[in-house]
Amino acid sequence: MQEEYLLLGYITDAFSLDGTFKVLSKTDFAETRYQEGKDIYLCSPRTKERQVMTVESYRGNGQFDFVKVKEVNSKEEALAFKGYEIRALKDYDSLAKDEYYFVDLVGCKVLNEKLEELGTVTQVEEFPAQLTLRVKRAGKEDFFVPFVKAFIRRVDINKKEIEINVIGGML
Q: Residue 1 pLDDT more than 70?
C-alpha cells in the first residue's frame, strides 16, 4: 500500500524566540499544507515516532518555510525538533481523476503495450514542459517517460503499475 504521509520538509533551525520552525521546503503546496488549524506531523529521524501539531501560522521565503505550531512556544522548544521531518496526511479526495502523488508513482513497475516489464520508476522529475518519470532498468541506462496522455496508457497505483506507449528512441 502507498505511504500515507507526504514529506513537507525538514526542520533546520528555530527562526525566532516564539518557537517558529525554519523548514527546508520539500513541497510545492506549502500554502495549502500549512493552513492555520491544519495538523502536521513531526517525525523523529532516529525513532520514526510522530507527534501531531497544529499550524498556527506560515510564511514562505524561497526554499524555506517558516512554520509556527501551537504546541511550541519558545526557541528552545523549537530547537528540540531540529532535524525532524514535517509530514502531512495524504488527502486522496483532493486529487482529481488522473492526478497522483509523486511518492505513489515512485516504485511502480513500467510496462510496455504487451505488458512486458521495462523497469521501475525511481523519480518524478519536473521539467518546464511536463512531469517526467525516470525509469531504472536492470543492467541498462535509465530512460525517461513524459507523464502525459500520449505516453501514459494506464496507471494503477494499487498494483504499482504504469503502462506506457513506447516510441522509437525512448529506450
A: no
CA 61 – CA 47 distance, rounded (Å) = 30
Question: What does the block give as the cell for 49?
Answer: 515516532
End-to-end CA distance of the chain: 29
- Phi-psi category of 147—alpha, beta or left, where left has phi over 0 and alpha has psi -120 to 50? beta
Specify the DSSP class assigned to residue 96.
Answer: P
Which amino acid is located at 152 in the chain?
A: I
How buried is residue 100: exposed, middle or buried, by Cβ count under 10 Å (0-12/13-18/19+)?
middle
Once rounded to an integer, what is the mean pLDDT over residues 77-106? Answer: 90
Residue ranges and CATH numbers for the domains of the chain are: 5-94 (2.40.30.60), 102-164 (2.30.30.240)
Q: Is the pLDDT of residue 94 over 90?
A: no
Torsion of CA 147, 149, 155, 161, to 10 degrees: -60
Place of cell 510564511: 59
pLDDT, tens only, 122-155: 999 988 888 999 999 999 999 999 999 999 999 9
What is the mean predicted confidence (pLDDT) over 59-87? 96
CB 9 within 8 Å of CB 24: yes
Buried/exposed 19-52: b ≥16 CB within 10 Å, e otherwise: bbbbbebbbeebeebbeeeeebbbbeeeeeeeee
